[in-house]
Amino acid sequence: MGNLNVQTKLNGTIDLYGNSVSSFQRKMYGKGWILIQPEICNREGLLNELANHQINH
Questions:
Q1: Largest alpha-carbon pair distance within the chain?
Q2: Rounded distance, CA 52 to CA 17, Å?
Q3: Using DSSP, how many helices (H) and how many strands (E) does the chain show?
């Protein structure tokens, strides 16, 4: 399994994507990509958990 990349956008959305899927497949087919809307409950908690997971694994 590839590495998880977390990117926060200026509009508040969070992009999660893995390096194991090519950027072409992510853009064309949405594979290996999760878009989290800014309205999610406990957004800061989610970002902290993702950061902890990236550091520990």
A1: 31
A2: 16
A3: 2, 3
CA 33 – CA 38 distance, rounded (Å): 16
Q: Are 19 and 5 in contact (CB under 8 A)?
A: yes
**Letter for the amino acid at 53?**
H
- C-alpha 28/C-alpha 52 separation (Å) is 30
Please give the chain's pLDDT, 57 residues, in tens: 447 888 899 999 999 888 888 889 988 988 888 999 989 889 899 888 888 876 655
> What size, in residues, is the chain?
57
Is the CB of residue 18 less than 8 Å from the CB of residue 2? yes
8 Å CB contact between 2 and 51: no
